[in-house]
Amino acid sequence: MFFRILHINLRFTSTTGKKILGATGAVLAGTAIATYFQKNEVYMASKQQPAGKFMAEPITPKTQLTANSDDIKTKMELLIMKIQADFCHALENEEFFGKKFTVDRWERKEGGGGITCVLQDGDVFEKAGVNVSVVHGILPKGAIQQMRSRGKELAEGDLPFFATGVSAVIHPRNPMVPTIHFNYRYFEVTDSKGHKQWWFGGGTDLTPYYLNEEDAVHFHKTLKEACDDHDRDYYPKFKEWCDKYFFIPHRNECRGVGGIFFDDLDTPDEESAFEFVSSCAHSVIPSYLPLVRKHKNEAYGDRERQWQLLRRGRYVEFNLIYDRGTKFGLYTPGARYESILMSLPLTAKWEYMHLPPADSKENELSLVLKNPRNWLKTTQ
Fold first, then answer.
1. Which residues belong to the active site?
2. Tens digits of per-residue pLDDT, 185-228?
3. Which of 67, 171, 323, 365 is most exposed, with minimal Cβ within 10 Å?
């Protein structure tokens, strides 16, 4: 449900010329936040704006963001707002006839809300969804059980929580263009004694319909560079975690060719973890947009389209049965189900006992999904 950014070197300045937002999404400081809101119009669904503008007003009131400019919650909310806007504008620029995102800002009576941006029936993107959510309240029992099952030590009684993140799933029309998913989030829980637990999670992964080894290498190399800026152990660790997480047990195959995935990241410290998440999020556009431009005009026929629909069916199976974010969203009181299920494609297909021919391009992909590769060693 919830929940990632791209290295575009945008710089916003106050009226005094002081830099208040850098490429890593460093938060706007002090009274500069108010200046930022005054000087930058938000994106409205009825008109086109340059990249770098928010898609809608932030969920948290501007006065609160200004008063808490050093709080990690403020930093993360402004980061995901920027990431959403940058990615939506980048995707719109790939459309042939000016298709735009529909922007839906919503509020949750239990606390917080979100901004759902969806582009449907485009010439390049059959369905593209980019969500941000900023929610708070009392942690539901189902969510507590899920967190405890993965090792979280949570106190008894009511547990106030705060969760914010950006999440996107892009389903292209051309089967030669892969699907991408990314999700970057921050979570904190406070017990009755005021003790706070916090952590980050997220990742980016690629799901092609036809295997292109150059694409996979480019994608993984871009993610590795983002990880290496912070810790050279991150990429191999989070790449392996991604292969294991996006695995469909009943099909005995991975959802795609992987990427990175991590959760419960609370080291080395809050600020360093935030900067890592920012770097990863900023790697989305350079990891994916070159693949869109490379393949969006390639020819395909009904055979390729039918295979794409079958593979989308596997995507649906994973999201509805196994995905942790979907489960958390469904457990959350006041959840907005349209936004939670935004990740599902417009069309998908299931055939009984379908097996691609052994010597086909379709089977070439199937074999890789059953045997994940290390894409940054010698191409196999």
1. 181
2. 999 988 766 778 899 999 999 999 999 999 999 999 999 999 99
3. 67
